[in-house]
Amino acid sequence: MSDMIxxxxxxxxxxxxxxxxxxxxxxxxxxxxLRSGELLxxxxxxxxxxEAFGALDxxxxxxxxxxxxxxxxx
Length: 74
Hints:
The protein is mostly helical. Helices cover 74% and strands 0% of the residues. The protein has 4 helices and no strands. It is globular and about 35 Å long. It starts with a helix and ends with a helix. The model has no long low-confidence stretch (mean pLDDT 88).
């Protein structure tokens, strides 16, 4: 992973909820979709990495979807 991306994601750990909301607004120009600080932190980290390196490919999404359905049924 690029050092810049690592530092950006690690910096999220030091932000409180208001800091995370401000980071979201600065990055995406709209209010964050979540009220949970932990979920917002995870979503920001995922999006930062996905924008830098690409999101999940179609096969990975399919496998995760299938696995989720199996666990929910069991």
